Amino acid sequence: MNAQIQLIKTAQGHMAVCQDTPTDIDPAWFSVDFWRAKNAVVGSSKGRYTTWFVAFEHSHWVLRHYWRGGLMEKFSKDAYVYTGLENTRAMSELRLLDILYREDFAVPKPIAANIVRDGLFYRADIIIERVEGAEDLVAKLGKGVMSTEQWQALGATIAQFHQRGVYHADLNAKNILFQPAQTEPLTPERFYLIDFDRGELKTPSPQWQQSNLDRLLRSFNKEQGKLPNLAFTADNWSSLMQGYQAAMQNA
């Protein structure tokens, strides 16, 4: 599986490049200023920090920098201790996405990552393909309800990841996208999981799987506290769990 990712040594570290990525990719591509100079920045998503959407040929990419959180943020906003290329946050996420994408899981297509060394530390960025026409569940549920069948389909989607042993470190309502049915190419509606930073493949276990689900439920309740009209109810969660349990039992 590792052969699908090419490592390219740079003046300051390494780029990791997935299949089908343009061969002329350069470390400059991981800077939003590069895309601004081309008038190719087409949007952004603002959380604690900004994620950028850029236009490349006939698709849109997502450019994300790795920022620290928690107590360590007070010491450095984006520098991590370097213990080897394969241990970097960007490399780990890119490899996981590459495996899942090629196995046809509902994840964004990975493009490349850039790891910049600075003595004992590193900084990193990742580029993935934007899921066309999709919106996160907070945005979707802020505008209206999902059907029972859609909630069950979401539960079944999460179950597929859990059966594969995919641990998502931050499974929340904003890290789930809903993509409506597409006409070109013709595809059915689909739920995607995004942001696999600190995610990993683990031996399937009811303990961490339930912890994942508990985190998601807390997320829905938290978002509803901030947005009272969010279309989420206890019945919706029951439908999600019905879909999840049915998929787990039929595996």
From TrEMBL:
| Localization of this protein | Cell inner membrane
Q: If you read the UniProt record, what top EC class would you report for this enzyme, in one word?
A: transferase
- Report the pathway entry: Bacterial outer membrane biogenesis; LPS core biosynthesis
Catalytic activity, as annotated? an alpha-Kdo-(2->6)-lipid IVA + ATP = a 4-O-phospho-alpha-Kdo-(2->6)-lipid IVA + ADP + H(+)
Q: Origin, by domain of life?
A: Bacteria
Protein's UniProt keywords contain Membrane: yes
Location (main, coarse): membrane
Q: What is its EC number?
A: 2.7.1.166
Q: Which residues form a coiled coil?
A: none
What InterPro entries does the database record attribute to this sequence? KDO_kinase, Kinase-like_dom_sf
Q: Which keywords does the record carry?
A: ATP-binding, Cell inner membrane, Cell membrane, Kinase, Lipopolysaccharide biosynthesis, Membrane, Nucleotide-binding, Transferase
What positions does UniProt annotate as the active site of this protein? D170
Task: Spell out the family assignment given in the record's similarity comment.
Answer: Belongs to the protein kinase superfamily. KdkA/RfaP family.
What is the name of this protein?
3-deoxy-D-manno-octulosonic acid kinase
Which organism does this sequence originate in? Shewanella scandinavica
Q: What is the lineage of its organism?
A: Bacteria, Pseudomonadati, Pseudomonadota, Gammaproteobacteria, Alteromonadales
Q: Which gene encodes it?
A: kdkA
